């Protein structure tokens, strides 16, 4: 039972880590896209 719990915790942690990474990448892409747009349209 202990082993099962540990495996479960590890799986959850790795999922969280993956989610954080993808979230971070999406955020970076989003902010760079906005930066690019604001740079290409200085009037707006």
Explain what the structure shows.
It is a single chain. The protein is mainly alpha-helical and 44 residues long. The protein is 89% helix and 0% strand. The chain has one helix and no strands. The chain has one helix at 2-40. The mean pLDDT is 82.
List the helices and strands and how they pair.
Layout: H1 2-40
Describe what is shown at a glance.
This protein has 44 residues and is mainly alpha-helical.
Could you give the distance between the termini?
A: 60 Å
User: How many E-type strands?
Assistant: 0
Mean pLDDT over all positions: 82
The whole-angstrom Rg is 19 Å
Output the keywords.
single chain, mainly alpha, mitochondrion
């Amino acid at each position: 039972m202990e082993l099962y719990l540990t495996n479960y915790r590890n799986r959850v942690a790795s999922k969280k880590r993956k989610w954080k990474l993808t979230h971070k990448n999406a955020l970076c892409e989003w902010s760079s896209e906005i930066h690019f747009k604001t740079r290409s349209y200085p009037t707006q």
